[in-house]
Each structure stands twice: as structure tokens, then as C-alpha cells.
Amino acid sequence: MAASTRSVQCALRRAVVPSLVVILGATGTGKSKLAIEIGKRLQGEIISADSKQVYQGLDIITNKVTPEELAQCRHHMISFVDPLVSSYTVVDFRNKALALIDDMHCRNKLPIIVGGTNYYIESLLWKVLVDTGGNHESGDGGDETPSRKLELEKLGGAELHKRLAEVDPKMAAMLHPNDKRKIARSLQIHEETGVSHSHWLEEQRGQDGGDGLGGPLRYPDACIFWLQADMEALDKRLDARVDEMLSAGLIEELGDFHVRYNQQKVQDNRQDYQHGIFQSIGFKEFHDYLTAPESSTQQEKDALREKGIEAVKIATKRYARKQSKWVRNRVLKRPGDNVPAVYGLDVTDLSRWEETVLNPALQILEHLSKGEDPPIPPIAVQGAEQKNKRSHHLCDVCDKVIIGDLEWTAHLKSKKHHSYARRKKRKCDPDCDKPQSTDAAPASAAETLSEDSCAAVALGCSETSQESPTHKEVPVTF
């Protein structure tokens, strides 16, 4: 009752409009810089939504704000979890962050959410974590009772997928057999609740204001800024940032952290780069360098070091693209009207940062606080018609499972698929690619494949395979 009364009092006292500012964008686009400037000017406080920055240590590789930046604006959710903890989840983050937002509203402070872990941000904006009753919650990004989930993940992907297909065929049809983490989570939910994961998702998405990706929006008047940059310019900036990290002591930081927290795990062959802070870009990439035998020559160590640096740069640029793709697919293409206003800001030219980023952002927030439409229009939301269905496809040619209609279309157009298709075509009929002599006697239908048959085999989507269960779409999306 006390918590309920407090929420009502906060709602009556709150004078913050918009109720929430969210800053999205790929790594290296300057999200923290904008957040700090807005916070200083508009009495805001920053909540970091970064799954690696919650852990103590690795300040360089996780790109934490500096002590000088922390002094400019109050920050939350940074460096408070022991690095050896691997059970911190999106549910833990969501619960703590929502309480912080409520407290800021009580104090008439503007909550500013910034960070690179987009599913953390999604858990705040939308009710996407499935409430299964009691204390158990899970969803697209969350794990509860992680010890059981980790135990399940030790099983092979094929075995896990088989188990899931037996208890939740709808969810199994939407998950790739290699996606052990999501399969284990779905199995865990069924074990602990006796109800399939797909059922919980259907129930959640059926709520008033829900959609195909989750439940209703928490803060309808939230304002989202999406920092965008030309990818070629961003790639150069990211390479330069890695070089700056190296100059700041990145290698030394990784080496020290490895000795304190990871060396014994490697010796026991139980290192884990899939959970906790060890997922940070850098650990897996520098694994060979950090674990090089003492007998290695300096030349060998230098080669491993350079290999690690290049791997970090590649992984960073790949991650930046993944972050941008998430904004397009999980925000701009979100079904229905369940999306706050998203304003694009161009961060390509850093010499014009105030002109193209800070001033437009402040202008937008000023108009919103007055209940006016900003002169800068938001990005158009593309809606449900663009949603990618997580249907299950099997390519007979490549012997590969593809999840998602867009991924399936891209696979059929890929060079790799067509290469396999040509090989299979030649194997079916070695003379298929050879010009036919006009003097040759026509072959009987029983002795040769027709041109249409060759094409069907090449595409791996014959009439039979299209009608098979592997090509049926399921009504629930993940």
C-alpha cells in the first residue's frame, strides 16, 4: 500500500515532460556526450543501460564515462556488480531502473536513458518481459533462475531443440537449433511454470496496447533521440577509438583482469565468453594473446597482439551495425502505434556537433515541454507491414535452417547458396550446363531431369519442401 501511495504522490508532483528521454545509437556516436549536456541543462539524471558497464572493472574496454564526466551530471547503474557474477539479468536491471525513474519523477528530475544494450532499453520502454506469475519473469532478453538455464545450455543444441519441440512446438519452430540460450530459456520457463513460453508470449501480446513484439508502452510521452552517422565515417571513428583505448592502457587492463578473474578458468577449461562481463568485446578477441604460452617468442606474442587488435576493430564495427539494425527492426518497424516519437540526429560531422545534434535536441525538448509539436518532425514509423516474421525455413541445398522471412529471402540470393545450388545441379545432371547438340537424339523423360526440375533442385525449395512442416509459418513471433 505504501508503494502504491508513493506512486500516486509522484504522479501528482511530477512536472517532467517528456517523462523520459532515451538516447539510442551505435557505439561511437556520442550518446553519453549528448546525455550529459541535456542533463546539465534540464535538471536530468542519467541511467546507464549498458550490460557491461554494470560490472566493476574494465573501464576502458567498456568505455565507461570518466570521473570528470561523472562530476558533470549524476549517473546511475555503473560499476555496482561484482565481475565474477554471471547471473545479473535484464530483469534485475529493469526492476532497479524503473525504481530510479519513479524516484526521479518524484524529485522533478528528467530521467535520461543512454547505453548500447538495446534490450535493456526495450525492457524499460515496453512491457516485454513476460510475467509468468510469482517471482519468475522472462522474455526476449531476460533470464531468471540463471543457474538452471546455464545447466541446460551445457547440453547440445540438437538435444535442447528436440526437448523444446516436445513441450513447445511453436517456440521450437521459431528458434534456430544453434540458439542454445533462447532454447534453454524457453525450456526453463516451461519447467518452472508448467506452461509453454509461447503461451506466455501470446498472453502478454494480447494485452491492451500490446503488439507482436511485446506488451504495452510504459511511457507514451517518452522522447527518443537516434544518433546516426554515415557508416564509412563511423568506421574510421571506431578504429580511431580502439587506437585511443590502446594508448589508454587497454592491453594492460585486459591482462590484469585476465590474471585476477579468468586465468584459472582457462586452466580448468571452463572459461565463458557468453555470460557476464566476459562478453565484453576484447576478451574473446584477445584470448590467444592473453593465454599465450610463456615459451612464446616476442615475435609470436606481437603477432597475436596485432591479431587481437584487428579482431576488436572488426567486432566493434559489426556491433555498431547490429545496434542500428535493432533500432530499425525493434523500434521503427514496431507494429501498430505503440512507439514513442523518434527524432534522428546526424552525428557524422563532429565539427558541427552543436549545430546538428545538441541544439536540435534541446529545441525538440523545449517544444515538447510546452506541449507543442517540434519544428523538426520525428522519423516515420514503418509499422507492422514491415515486420519480419520468424518463420522456419529449411534449405535442402545448403542443409541449413533459416529463421525469418527476410533472412530466408537474403539466403536464397546469397552467393554461397547459388554456389551450392550449381554444385548440386551438376551432380544431378553432369550435362546440365553443357550446350545440347542439335543432332543428338532427344532423351526420354525418365532419363533426364527437366530444366524446371534442375531449377527447383538448385533453389532447394521444391513443391514438396514448400509444403513440408519446415516451411509453415507459426502465428507467434519471438
The SS-based structural class is alpha/beta
CATH homology superfamily of the largest domain: P-loop containing nucleotide triphosphate hydrolases
CATH architecture label of the largest domain: 3-Layer(aba) Sandwich
Q: Which stretches are low in confidence, meaning pLDDT under 50 for 5 or more residues running?
A: 1-5, 133-145, 437-478
CATH top level label of the largest domain: Alpha Beta
How big is the Rg? Answer: 26 Å
CATH topology of the largest domain: Rossmann fold
Looking across the biggest beta sheet, what order are the strands in? 3-2-4-1-7-8
The share of residues in helices is: 40-55%
Could you walk me through the main structural features you see in this protein, from its secondary elements to its overall organization?
The chain has 478 residues and is an alpha/beta fold. 48% of the residues lie in helices and 9% in strands. The two termini are 35 Å apart. It has helices at residues 2-13, 31-41, 67-72, 90-106, 118-125, 146-153, 157-167, 169-174, 180-193, 197-205, 231-248, 250-267, 287-290, 298-332, 353-369, 405-413, 415-428, 451-459, 463-467, and strands spanning 21-25, 44-48, 75-76, 110-114, 129-131, 137-139, 223-228, 341-346, 392-395, 400-403. Belongs to the IPP transferase family. It comes from Anabas testudineus.
List keywords for this structure.
478 residues, alpha/beta, Rossmann fold, Helix Hairpins, 3 domains, 6-stranded parallel β-sheet, two-stranded antiparallel ribbon, 19 helices, 10 strands, 9% strand, globular, disordered N terminus, disordered C terminus, cytoplasm, tRNA dimethylallyltransferase activity, transferase, zinc-finger
